[in-house]
Every structure is written in C-alpha cells, then in structure tokens.
C-alpha cells in the first residue's frame, strides 16, 4: 500500500524535474498564489501571520539550540553512506537508458563513498547568525521606540537565542566550525544595506535616525540567509538539523510576505501610503518577496527529500 502511494509522488517529482526553468517558476508562482488564497480564507486576523512567522523562526532557532547542545558540533554529525550515493544515481531520470553504464557508475561512487564517509558535512553559517542578530537588534530597537507591543517581546526572545547560538559557535564549538566554507564577507552584505537605507527609508513622522534603522533592518533581513546558502552551495550536502532550520526560515519568510501582501489587499493599498511615499513602500514589498524566493528552491528540495525518506539533503547543481 505504501509503495502504491509513493508511485504517484515519484512520478510527479520526475515530471517536475524534467520541466524547463520557466515552467518551474510559473508553477511556483501559481502555488504561492494558491497558498495566499487559502491563507486569506482560513486566517481571519492577518496580523497573526506575522506572529506565526516569528514563532516558526523561533522554532528553527530551537532546532539549532538542540543540535549544538546535544551534538556539540557546528558541522553535520551524519555520514554519507554508499546507499545514499546509489540513491542519487537511481533518482536521475535517464538511468534506465544508461543501464550499461550503471555498473561502472556504482564502482566509481563506491570508491568516493569511502573517501567521504569519515568527513564532516558542513553545517551552520556563523556569519548568517551574526547578520540575523544585527537585524533583530535593529528591529528590536525600532519596535521598542515606535510600537512596544507583542512583536517587541518576540524579537527579544529570538535575539536572545540567536546570541546564544553565536556564542556557542564562536567560542565553545569553534573547533568544529568550518571557516573555509563560510566565506561570504559580512561587510559585503551589511554595507549595501546600510547605504540603501540612507537613500530609501520611511517618510513617517519618526526621527530620521529611527527611520534609517528601520529601513536597514528590513533590507538586511531579506539577505541575511545568503552566507548560509553559500555554505550549502559549496558542498551541495546539508545535514538534517541545518536543513530543518533553513526550511523553518523559508516558512517564516513566506508567512511574513503573506502578511504584508494580504494587509495591502485588505486595506486596498492604504497600507502603502501609511508607510510613506516615494520608493520605500515598494522596496518593503520587494524585500519581503525577495527573501521568500531566495529560499523557495531550497524548500522544494527539502520537502522532496523528506517525502523520499532521506535524512541528508542533497542539492542538485544550480540550487541556492
């Protein structure tokens, strides 16, 4: 029965892999729109979406805390087995046409499997965690001086746990941190966001410095995950806890983006005018959409991996 249930899923996955990039993008957009429609019908108070996004982010941080506290390592604790290598070959759409080559392929991957079995898989990006702490600190300050509501407490809790993760990675578990894989400079991310916030920021009645900091945290949040994606891009292999965390980020970013889009729809565009005039309202929406689509590809392969019963996530070329 279980095998019969898997066959349609595998056929769908195979069909999706064969589609050109434009079709995949179209299907992703249609799926996102369908999800927005469902959320709008199911969730009556759309402000709860932002709270849900913060809760999912906190859940992802909790996964990291559990990983660091139990495994005592920043890198992956798993191993790449021969069977996982075999599965990678068998998942290719054209393997039936290449039966004469399968034997030599197995011999090659058998040798390579033994060479990587004892190697650690890359895990967390310290730089992504540091960027997360920076934008959370900026957002916490803005929330405190501008609103001071439940979002302030959520940001404080998330910032506290993120700082703990940074402390563990930088000091207690630094020997397991793969510096050479985490090779995106923080300045390359922070400086453009800071410069953009000086040029484009809210035009509300708050102090100019507070408005600039607000814009800075919005821009930085949208790209803070880039170092983590770079770490995964360098190896194409993601250990389970890191995969769970990045997937939680993807879900949180989607819920946050859905919150903004539905708020704009519900207010018939009045929310954009409340944020100010000029380029700022448009950049807020663009930032939310960008940070969602940055992680969309990864989330697809994460779901595919979980449905296939594989703990170690293997990313194909061109992803993230």
From TrEMBL:
Biological process according to GO: protein retention in ER lumen; protein transport; vesicle-mediated transport
Membrane topology: Multi-pass membrane protein
Main location: endoplasmic reticulum
GO cellular component entries: endoplasmic reticulum membrane
UniProt keywords, alphabetically: Endoplasmic reticulum, ER-Golgi transport, Membrane, Protein transport, Receptor, Transmembrane, Transmembrane helix, Transport
Transmembrane region(s): 25-43, 49-69, 152-171, 183-200, 241-262, 282-303
InterPro entries according to UniProt: ER_ret_rcpt
An annotated Gene Ontology molecular function: ER retention sequence binding
Protein localization: Endoplasmic reticulum membrane
Pfam families per UniProt: ER_lumen_recept
PANTHER family: ER LUMEN PROTEIN RETAINING RECEPTOR (PTHR10585)
Family: Belongs to the ERD2 family.
The protein's name: ER lumen protein retaining receptor
């Amino acid at each position: 029965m279980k095998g019969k249930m898997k066959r349609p899923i595998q056929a769908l996955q195979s069909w999706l892999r064969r589609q050109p990039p434009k079709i995949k993008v179209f299907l992703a957009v249609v799926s996102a729109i369908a999800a927005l429609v469902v959320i709008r019908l199911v969730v009556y108070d759309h402000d709860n979406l932002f709270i849900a996004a913060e809760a999912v982010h906190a859940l992802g941080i909790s996964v990291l805390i559990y990983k660091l506290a139990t495994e005592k390592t920043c890198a992956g604790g798993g191993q790449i087995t021969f069977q996982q290598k075999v599965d990678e070959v068998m998942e290719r759409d054209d393997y039936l046409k290449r039966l004469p080559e399968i034997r030599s392929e197995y011999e090659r991957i058998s040798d390579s499997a033994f060479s990587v079995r004892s190697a650690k898989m890359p895990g967390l990006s310290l730089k992504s965690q540091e960027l997360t702490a920076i934008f959370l600190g900026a957002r916490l300050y803005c929330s405190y001086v501008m609103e001071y509501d439940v979002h302030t407490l959520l940001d404080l809790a998330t910032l506290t746990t993120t700082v703990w993760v940074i402390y563990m990675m930088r000091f207690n578990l630094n020997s397991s941190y793969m510096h050479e894989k985490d090779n995106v400079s923080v300045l390359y991310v922070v400086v453009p966001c800071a410069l953009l916030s000086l040029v484009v920021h809210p035009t509300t009645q708050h102090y100019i410095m507070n408005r600039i900091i607000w814009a800075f945290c919005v821009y930085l949040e949208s790209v803070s995950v880039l170092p983590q994606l770079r770490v995964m891009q360098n190896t194409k292999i993601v250990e389970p806890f890191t995969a769970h965390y990045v997937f939680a980020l993807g879900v949180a970013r989607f819920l946050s983006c859905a919150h903004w889009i539905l708020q704009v729809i519900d207010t018939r565009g009045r929310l954009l005018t409340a944020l100010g005039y000029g380029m700022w309202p448009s950049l807020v929406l663009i930032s939310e959409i960008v940070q969602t689509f940055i992680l969309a590809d990864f989330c697809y392969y994460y779901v595919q991996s979980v449905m296939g019963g594989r703990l170690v996530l293997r990313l194909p070329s061109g992803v993230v």
